[in-house]
């Protein structure tokens, strides 16, 4: 049986499942993760190669159509997961959804620019800009205490 394992590469549960003959398949519709624990690595692809992206390196994650792109200081990775799935396994201390198409690492925000009509523009490390939409304005403001 193949299951997508949203577990760190060194997680003992991963090793136990592999010993039982269960393989990690990033394309599987079945997902296993540790509830509420947060993960340290997210699987991603670049140039047809599979990588495990350290969540500390993630600046933001965005959805463009059917593609989910993980942005880090050393480049971008494609994820086969939806934003909702990633948000469930990422630490709520560090990551926050700011629009229907973006999750940011709040530790990577360099500057917050207020915009008209209840919006913020986030200036991230690496020079990227991410919008906080009106739907997420109050959630973002309350979370950051501004």
Describe it.
With 146 residues, the protein is of the alpha+beta class. The protein folds into two domains: 1-34, no CATH class; 35-144, OB fold (Dihydrolipoamide Acetyltransferase, E2P), CATH 2.40.50.1020. 16% of the residues lie in helices and 45% in strands. It is built from three helices and 13 strands, in the order βαβββββββαβββββα. The strands form four sheets. Strands 8-7-6-10-9 form a five-stranded antiparallel beta sheet. Helix 1 links the parallel strand 1 (2-6) and strand 2 (23-24). The protein is elongated and about 55 Å long. The N and C termini lie far apart (48 Å). The model has no long low-confidence stretch (mean pLDDT 87).
Features:
146 residues; alpha+beta; OB fold (Dihydrolipoamide Acetyltransferase, E2P); 3-stranded parallel β-sheet; 16% helix
How many H/I helices? 3
Give the topology string: H per helix, E per strand: EHEEEEEEEHEEEEEH
- Can you give the mean pLDDT? 87
Q: What portion of residues belong to β-strands?
A: over 45%
Number of domains: 2
What is the terminal-to-terminal distance? 48 Å
Task: Itemize the secondary structure elements and their pairings.
Blueprint: E1 2-6, H1 12-19, E2 23-24, E3 31-33, E4 41-46, E5 49-54, E6 58-64, E7 67-72, E8 75-79, H2 83-89, E9 95-99, E10 102-105, E11 109-115, E12 119-124, E13 129-132, H3 137-144
């Amino acid at each position: 049986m193949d299951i997508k394992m949203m577990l760190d590469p060194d997680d003992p549960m991963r090793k136990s499942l592999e010993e039982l003959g269960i393989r990690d398949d990033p394309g599987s519709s079945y997902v296993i993760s540790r509830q509420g624990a947060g993960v340290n690595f997210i699987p991603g692809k670049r140039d047809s190669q599979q990588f495990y992206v350290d969540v500390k390196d993630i600046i933001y994650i965005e959805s463009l159509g059917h593609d989910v792109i993980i942005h880090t200081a050393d480049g971008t990775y494609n994820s086969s997961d939806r934003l909702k799935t990633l948000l469930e396994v990422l630490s709520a201390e560090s990551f926050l959804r700011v629009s229907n198409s973006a999750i940011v690492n709040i530790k990577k925000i360099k500057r917050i620019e207020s915009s008209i009509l209840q919006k913020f523009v986030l200036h991230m490390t690496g020079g990227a800009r991410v919008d906080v939409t009106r739907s997420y304005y109050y959630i973002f403001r309350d979370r950051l205490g501004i």
